[in-house]
Amino acid sequence: MSKKQIWLVIGIMATIVVFIVVGSYFFHSYQNGNLNSEDFSNSKTSFSSPSSNGNMQESTGKSSSTNQVLTSDHTTEKKQQMVYHADIQIQVNQLQTAKKQLDHIAKQTSASMVSSSNSEKADERYIRVTYNVPQNQFETFLEHSKKISDIPPDIQIAGEDVSEELVDLQSRIKAKRAMEARLIAMMDKATTTSDLLDIENTLGNVQEQLEQLTGRQKYLQHRVAFSTITVEITSSTYQPLQTQYSFINQASKEFLDSCINMWIGLQLFAIWLAQALPYLILIGIISLVAILVLRKKRKS
Q: What is the pTM (predicted TM-score) of this model?
């Protein structure tokens, strides 16, 4: 083979290499652009996530300030009749252990369970329990319940002042009882049957109203004496399995990740091959022409 033929082959091979390098450069630039855009969107998502934690901590801070207000209500205004209700959300790893701890707290504070429900979803389980807690044990119950949670719990406390309504009920009950006594005295002095029937009807209406007023009074007094606390305990269903079979889970995770990476690699190779196919066809045509020219010159 002459020097001219050697240089021709070298030029063809150089052209092939240039086409492959240029095609690979544009392909990798395209891929890196997609990855950078995905990283940017992920960074925005991760940046927005702390706000939820901030809200949770802020709500917890508000609950602590509400506890201080609750303490001042008990000490400074003894005649004020308040009805309190609290909602506390707790997150734990061991659901049944947390439930046993909560039952122990309820027993210590003389709290009685009003309702209980539980549910299990695809990725979590929760138990919701409502207690009637003596008002003097309200803060104690909350403080002990917060210690069960693995993270700072979300606590919301609401208070309702029923002092005015209780005073009004007391006055109305007093007036109705006085009217009842007068009607009973009038029945003893009634001389005709029609007067007796009228007094009995009026007395029956007064006694019915008196029963309604006293029932409402007892209901409010019970709500004042016993505050309501609803505790919701949430736990992930797969965490115990991860703790018990951590090696198996880790091995299976790595195997799946390898399979996914291999599949992605095959897809990327197929995409690169599809993009480089026109260059390969062009290189093949040039190579074929060069080979035919060299054979023709060799024969001549």
A: 0.49
Going by C-alpha positions, the residue among 236, 234, 239, 223 that lies closest to residue 88 is: 234
Determine the Cα angle at 264 with ends 262 and 268, to 5°. Answer: 115
Note whether 217 and 126 are within 8 A (CB): no
Measured distance CA(243)–CA(248) in Å, rounded: 10
**Positions of the chain with pLDDT lower than 50, given as ranges:** 34-78, 238-244
As to burial, measured by CB atoms within 10 angstroms (0-12 exposed, 13-18 middle, 19+ buried), residue 246 is exposed
Strand (E) or helix (H) holding 252: helix 246-299
What is the Cα 206 distance to its own chain's centre? 52
- According to the model, what pLDDT value does residue 206 have? 93
Helix residue ranges per DSSP H, 77-192? 95-108, 138-146, 163-189
Chain mean pLDDT for the chain: 76
CA distance from start to end of the chain: 13
